[in-house]
Design a protein that fits this description.
heterodimer, A: about 475 residues, globular, B: alpha+beta, five-stranded mixed sheet, 5 helices, about 40% helix, elongated
Chain lengths: ~475, ~180
């Protein structure tokens, strides 16, 4: 039974001029070139700037270790949070970091299910970013419990007091959501890595890399009898991760939304938090990938089209977030609840943190609007600056939500002002150090782009299209004509 | 044609390289039609439609994942009801300590469903593709190792009942193999 999927008479979609899409890999690169370029990053010496970034990042991670040691040995009183603002920077930073992770899962899972093939060039690095961001996030609640050595009380195991966890509490839901998210993200990332680890194994010359890459590649042989189960596993994990990523930030928002504090107790929180997380996460992906693509010469794989697409997602999610901000204000007015409208009045007009609200609003809602214009999405400096404004804006969003809502309690006698101590500031800087250090180590030791997936989007990868050389010739002529 | 074999070791099979995904695809159809059983194609990325060309069906990993997810859900329901209703009922937030507290148990049930389904997809996949297996005769073949770069490789094993040392080699050449290598155990 011959398979006649190649219709010799018809024009293949890739050849037709009027409906041809921009190629995902530029300059007619071959599979061998892709392997060499991606594996070369790991096999060659790192550029000087890698060390310039790595050493301060290690030093900052040391600061993180020091502040955590100081916190545990002295007590949580070294942080600035107290009554009434019991949740300070620790929870702000937790939500900030966990939100950043969401873009990685969105790229790896949701864009996979929707068959957005451009994801192949950026999914590996974004998933790595997810893992490192969730690690940074996890530090905060673990130490926020006060007695770090008792953090295992969060796990549903029998303890000496015969007390069981309260499964009705959003804080326990959070424990399950975040730990599941981290575990599944690692599984997904690792499954994606297996074929590329096999490539590194087969190219390694020294015994130690060969042993280590070989060990983690598990003896991958790339047979179709393996690929078919592998592809099913990847598809199923994408299908599992899609609701998972939506659930994680929804559960994080339940920490606030299920309480009865004006400014937190709103039903818009879950979708608003998820959109914000995707928004902030894509900004962080761009912040990391723009320098990486330049530094390692990956412009042919992470093309202007990729950056353009990500900028559009930032515009979309930023606008959703802006809608949520306005809707919150409208409901505070329209709901007729005195405490609710006061909370928002204090947030935007006369409260102690109005400056933070306007920082947030500018960075998250106004700044991304520039992406309506095509030139701005193709100017890397504009994209980089807006992405960093969004990074800052999303941090301010969490700051606006958390301390402003609880700094004004129901009675004026319980009002307070919160500002962080040097320990909190150094710790936040330290998590950036940890994040950057882990990302640089990832660049050094693992393939930053999923080579096996990028090879699959080349014209010659399609077995039903034997004339791919004609297409390559056409593209070459076109490039020569335009040059 | 290269020979990477010591002649006293038994033959594992033939490794044949093809020049493109499309050549490999059509070669796979011919190998399938010739009735071979112990053979495989090795490619740098999953080739679209190759399951059909090889005559393979759907992967039933999904059944394992369904079982994993179901056990996760059941475990979560058991864990929460047993601890919250039987062992240690706590009255908080005015929520009941009986069956009607179920809405509060949804998030953890959902997360554990995903967690166990995710583990099932990883370990189920590894079981179905028989990995980890760090040593394999094919790793002795330099031609085979091109699969992880840009090679399109077809392997027919000697233990296939239809395998004949001379005939199979000429069969591979006939269906378009660019280069053929024999691999020993």
């Amino acid at each position: 039974m011959a398979d006649n999927t190649t219709d010799q008479g018809a024009v293949h979609p890739s050849e037709a001029e009027d409906i041809a899409r921009e190629p995902l890999v530029l300059n007619n690169r071959s599979m061998g070139w892709i392997t060499d370029r991606i594996c070369g990053i790991v096999e060659n010496r790192q550029p000087f700037i890698w060390w310039v970034l790595f050493l301060p990042a290690v030093a900052l991670s040391g600061c993180l270790a020091f502040t955590l040691f100081y916190l545990v040995s002295t007590g949580v009183g070294v942080w600035g949070n107290n009554q009434p603002v019991a949740w300070g920077w620790a929870i702000v930073n937790f939500v900030f970091w966990i939100g950043i992770g969401h873009a990685g899962t969105l790229i790896s899972a949701i864009l996979f299910l929707t068959r957005q093939k451009w994801r192949t060039s950026v999914n590996r690095a974004s998933e790595a970013m997810t893992l490192f961001a969730v690690m940074c996030a996890g530090i905060y609640p673990a130490f926020h419990v006060g007695r770090f050595w008792m953090v295992w009380f969060l796990a549903p195991v029998p303890n000496a007091n015969a007390i069981w966890q309260n499964f009705k509490s959003p804080l326990l839901w959070d424990v399950f959501a975040v730990s599941t998210y981290f575990t599944i993200s690692i599984v997904f990332w690792y499954i994606g890595l297996i074929p590329d680890l096999a490539t590194l194994r087969d190219r390694a010359r020294k015994w130690l890399p060969k042993f280590l890459y070989g060990f983690f590649a598990l003896g991958w042989r790339g047979g179709n009898r393996q690929w078919r189960h592998y592809e099913m596993a990847y598809l199923l994990l994408a299908a599992l991760s899609t609701p998972l990523v939506l659930s994680v930030h929804s559960v994080v928002s339940f920490d606030f939304a299920t309480s009865v504090i004006p400014g937190w107790h709103t039903t818009i929180f879950p979708p608003y938090f998820v959109a914000g997380a995707v928004f902030g996460g894509f900004a962080m992906v761009l912040t990391l990938m723009l320098p990486v693509r330049k530094l390692y010469g990956l412009e042919d794989m992470i093309t202007a089209k990729h950056i353009d697409n990500m900028a559009k997602i930032i515009l979309l999610t930023g606008t959703i977030v802006g809608y949520a901000y306005i809707m919150e204000l409208f409901i505070a007015y329209y709901g007729g609840n005195k405490f609710e409208s006061d909370a928002f009045f204090l947030r935007i007009v006369s409260g102690p943190y109005t400056w933070a609200y306007y920082c947030m609003f500018f960075c998250n809602v106004i700044a991304p609007q520039i992406f309506w214009f095509r030139w701005s999405r193709h100017n890397l400096w504009v994209v980089f600056v807006v992405a960093n404004l969004v990074n800052a804006g999303m941090w301010f969003e969490r700051f606006v939500i958390i301390p402003t809502s609880i700094s004004r309690d129901f009675l004026p006698g319980q009002w307070g002002y919160y500002s962080p101590t040097w320990v909190e500031k150094l710790m936040f800087a330290g998590t950036f150090g940890l994040f950057i250090m882990l990302f640089l180590l990832f660049l050094r030791f693992l393939p930053v782009i999923a080579a096996s997936e990028v090879k699959g989007v080349l014209p010659e990868a399609d077995p039903h299209y034997p004339d791919w050389q004609k297409l390559r010739e056409k593209r070459r002529e076109k490039a020569a004509a335009s040059a | 044609m290269n020979e990477s074999s010591d002649s006293d070791k038994p033959l594992f099979g033939y490794v044949a390289e093809f020049s493109s995904a499309s050549d490999l695809y059509h070669a796979a159809e011919k190998v399938r039609d010739a009735g071979f059983r112990k053979w495989d194609v090795h490619t740098p990325y999953p080739v679209h439609g190759m399951d059909h060309a090889m005559g393979l069906g759907k992967s039933w990993l999904s059944a394992i994942v369904l079982a994993g997810g179901t056990s996760g859900a059941l475990f979560a329901v058991f864990l929460q009801f047993f601890t919250q209703v039987n062992l240690y009922p706590t009255v908080v937030q005015d929520k009941p300590t009986n069956l009607f507290t179920f809405p509060a148990f949804f998030p953890v049930t959902f997360e554990l469903t995903i967690l166990l389904a995710g583990f099932a997809s990883l370990f189920g996949m590894l079981a179905m593709i028989a990995l980890p297996q760090w040593h394999h005769p094919l790793f002795n073949s330099p031609l085979f190792l091109k699969f992880s770069d840009d090679g399109f490789i077809l392997v027919i094993e000697a233990r296939d009942p239809r395998f004949r040392e001379e005939e199979t080699r000429s069969f591979l050449a006939e269906i378009g193999a660019k280069e053929i290598e024999s691999v020993t155990w």
